[in-house]
Write a structure and sequence with these properties.
Strand order of the largest sheet: 15-16-17-18-19
Number of strands: 19
Structural class: alpha/beta
Number of helices: 30
Shape: globular
Strand content: 5-15%
Largest sheet: 5 strands, antiparallel
């Protein structure tokens, strides 16, 4: 009997983009990262592209791309973010699938996922089909092949869902063992009850569907998956491997057995630190000890198609004991972080969204029929625009699918209709119900998608759906006393986020003061905006800016020309007014009058003039988007920091001889002097590390002085810039690997940094070193054995650099300590 092992990772984050900006705003709880996607990428997605296998001295002996050795799926919306924000990680994921095809008989390790992770059995058939079609098309565009399998959100399943998968050519999906109802041998009539997780997960099963189609189901091993996700199994890679290998049973006449598990991919690094390393060692141990053959589902299915049939327990999932109730009722399933909390808000939220979805259907159908014969086919194919929003592709799509949308206004309207439907799908993202509180970021996110859909319906057809929706949320209780119910959550957390082209224009108008590009800031969001003409009056540190601006949505192509006036009173104090261009001379009159009052120093009157002309569209710093606020504050703070540095440096330089004498006499410095010296030393070390190249002798001098006085290090900043410097130096050496000076400098800088006792992030530097070791070491060794003195020196310095980076030569064998 042949033995196979497959580990599946479900890598997914809910879409987090602001629906009006198509960008993720700062999420403070993810600090020190910008947002949760960025944080989890650093903790999980990236480490799994280059997972370490350690030897007996906790030194790296091998680095592997885990994705090429497991079965995995990535959420399409997560990959969309990753393509733009973490392109190296994104490419490594795609490369892993390509590499895996050579390992697994032409079958890739990646499978698709329903597009934005909706609970499929709770969706209508039309939405189910779009979710599957979009998931398949997204996968095909990224991985350059058709998917064999598809992951269902939360493994939530019913027969209709399986029909949709099979109808779109999906060969298999993965479920939990308790989702199998009964089984029988193919060709037999007698069924065997396997309710309660009694199904044998070591074989595939064919599920015959009412339509006459069929789909293969793999039921993963629940207990071991639970141990991986919530137990101690990832503390040791060998233990993990032996646990999996121990699941094989007697052959029972079967030619092969498949041991397989499925967990959230974030288990390997985010939920369990070093989980990526445990996974890497586990797979390496299985392969090297020939415990079993590593495979993926597509390969196994080709080799050993199902000999058994199965019927499923409908309306079940892997993460709710009550079936699907976690996404529509207060069933008791929650995170456990809020003991005694209620989730009675789930039902009113779903009811409100279902009603909204149904109300949006006639709006969409009636309006889209003016442009196309089949509105829902247009929606299904809109994924081609979502994946490529270039102007040429959008126009080509509209010509093909909306031939009657001829004018620019018609095309804007068609795109708004399709965006309405996209947000009507996004508002069902499962995480909106998964957690404990209606004011949580995931639930607010799905409500924001609903708000955007309603806004588009209002703009397109003049239909106001907001009142019924918001009133329905009043029946959704919040656990936070500050809110009380979902209606207040909406008014506090959702409605303030709603924006339009005028509010967007205000963000860009501010750039005429704070951007060195004078109002031509690179696109930060999904808009192309620029001040076409503007004038600036200055009085001391205050500015008055008036002008005209063109703003265009890169999503709907809606374009508007606006007038703006901005009064900057210094630092973050500003007032900006926006209105659509009128074509009369009233704006010129405003400009003249406001300039006159401003130059006379009458700021209250200037503010009144702006407010009268632009009301109600006047904004202050508090109305700016969070990231814009932080950018401005950073610019303002930089000026303050420059001023503080100048002050401290004068103290440091003027009193340096006195400081040296006090040091020699071992006398403590007065607080004001120690603060100044500490600040300057931290600043100068930072600048040395940021310089290219760092001056090693000066760096050593500064480090010695820091250590001599035992000054407090700014560890957060120093660790960051030092890690960047090490990565930069090792990367530079990799581009010129014969340059002994570069190699020597990298080794010396690392030696100096050891004296600061910093916790460096040398992950990327280790990857570069390991690749160089594999590529160059043996060749250099041969040259050294031939009495090449330069090669001998190279080997000496290269080994020293490896010691500093804690990387052994790739020729050495893995040891036993492989989980940390």
């Amino acid at each position: 009997m042949e033995k196979f092992i497959c580990i599946h990772g479900h890598f997914y984050q809910p879409p987090r983009e602001n629906p009006w900006l198509e960008a993720i705003e700062t999420q403070d709880l993810a600090y020190p990262y910008h947002d949760w996607n960025e944080r989890i990428t650093a903790e999980c997605y990236e480490p799994n592209t280059a997972a370490r296998i350690l030897g007996p001295k906790d030194r790296i002996v091998e680095i592997v791309n885990n994705y090429s050795n497991i079965s995995f799926n990535f959420g399409p919306t997560l990959l969309s973010w990753m393509e733009n924000k973490a392109p190296e990680v994104y490419q490594a994921v795609l490369d892993a699938d390509r590499i895996s095809q050579d390992k697994f008989s032409g079958h890739g390790s990646a499978i698709a996922q329903v597009y934005n992770h909706i609970i499929m059995p709770l969706a209508n058939r039309r939405d189910q089909e779009t979710q599957v079609i979009w998931g398949i098309q997204d996968f095909a565009r990224r991985f350059r092949r058709q998917p064999e399998g598809m992951w269902l959100a939360e493994t939530a399943v019913d027969v209709d869902t399986l029909e949709v998968l099979a109808g779109q050519g999906i060969a298999f999906t993965i479920l939990a063992a308790h989702q199998a109802k009964r089984i029988r041998k193919q060709g037999e009539s007698k069924w065997t009850d396997v309710n309660g997780g009694q199904v044998d997960p070591r074989r595939p099963y064919q599920c015959l569907l009412p339509s006459g189609k069929s789909i293969t189901l793999f039921f993963y091993d629940n207990p071991v998956a639970h141990e991986v996700a919530f137990g101690p199994l990832l503390k040791n890679g060998e233990q993990f491997a032996r646990r999996l290998a121990g699941l094989f049973g007697e052959d029972g006449g079967n030619p092969a057995q498949l041991v397989h598990i499925a967990t959230d991919g974030e288990t390997y690094g985010h939920h369990h630190r070093y989980g990526d390393m445990a996974l890497a060692y586990c797979l390496d141990f299985i392969a090297s000890h020939q415990s079993a053959r590593i495979t993926v589902y597509g390969e196994y299915l080709e080799k050993y198609p199902p000999a058994d049939e199965v019927e499923i327990v409908e309306n079940t999932s892997w993460s709710c004991f009550h079936g699907l109730e976690r996404w529509r009722s207060d069933c008791g399933c929650n995170s456990g972080l809020r003991p005694g909390s209620t989730q009675a808000w789930r039902a009113p939220l779903r009811e409100a969204l279902d009603a909204l979805r149904d109300d949006l259907v006639p709006v969409y159908e009636k309006q889209m029929l003016g442009f196309a014969e089949d509105p829902w086919q247009v929606r299904n194919d809109y994924i081609n625009v979502i994946l490529d929003r270039s102007e040429g592709n959008v126009r080509s799509f509209l010509r093909s699918y909306c031939p009657r949308a001829v004018s620019d206004d018609d095309q804007v309207k068609a795109l708004k209709l399709l965006e309405l439907q996209r947000h009507a799908l996004l508002m069902y993202t499962s995480c909106g119900w998964f957690f404990d509180e209606i004011s949580g970021i995931e639930t607010v996110q799905v409500m924001q998608y609903a708000a955007r859909a309603m806004q588009l319906a209002q703009e397109i057809a003049g239909v106001d759906l907001r009142k019924y929706f918001v009133d329905h949320l009043a029946a959704a209780p919040s656990n936070e006393k500050a809110y009380g119910d979902g209606r207040q959550v909406w008014l506090s957390c959702v409605e303030p986020a709603v924006t339009d082209l005028l509010k967007i224009s205000a963000q860009y108008a501010v750039d005429t003061v704070f951007s060195p590009e004078n109002g031509r800031e690179p696109n930060q969001f999904c808009y192309d905006a620029a001040a076409e003409t503007f004038s600036v009056e200055e009085l001391g540190g205050q500015k008055l800016v008036t002008g005209r601006m063109r703003v265009c949505s890169l999503i709907t192509r809606e374009t508007s020309r606006v007038l703006f006036g901005l009064l900057h009173l210094g630092e973050h104090n500003l007032v900006v007014g926006i209105r659509r261009e009128t074509g009369d001379n009233s704006f010129a009159q405003l400009h003249d009058k406001a300039s006159e009052t401003f130059l006379h120093g009458d700021m209250p009157e200037t503010i009144r003039l702006l407010d009268d002309y632009f009301s109600p569209n006047t904004y202050t710093f508090n109305h700016l988007f969070k990231d814009k606020q932080r950018t401005i504050l950073k610019l303002i703070m930089q000026s303050a920091m420059d001023e503080a540095e100048s002050y401290f440096r004068r103290i440091y330089e003027h009193h340096y001889p006195l400081i040296q004498v006090m040091n020699k006499l071992k006398l403590p410095l007065p607080k004001i002097l120690s603060t100044a010296v500490e600040f300057i030393l931290n600043t100068d070390i930072t600048r040395q590390l940021e310089s290219d190249p760092p001056q090693v002798e000066e760096l050593l001098k500064l480090v010695a002085e820091m250590n001599n006085w035992k000054f407090k290090r700014d560890k957060t900043m120093l660790q960051y810039v030092a890690s960047q410097a090490v990565t930069r130096l090792v990367t530079q050496f990799s581009r010129q690997p014969g340059d002994l000076e570069l190699l020597n400098r990298a080794e010396k800088v690392l030696a100096a940094l050891r004296l600061l006792q910093l916790d460096l992030d040398i992950w990327k530097a280790q990857n570069v070193y390991h690749a160089l070791d594999k590529e160059l070491y043996l060749g250099m060794q041969e040259r050294a054995e031939g009495h090449d003195q330069i090669a001998r020196k190279w080997l000496e310095l290269f080994a020293s650099l490896g010691n500093a980076l804690r990387v052994d030569h790739a020729t050495e064998e893995p040891g036993q300590n492989h989980h940390k």
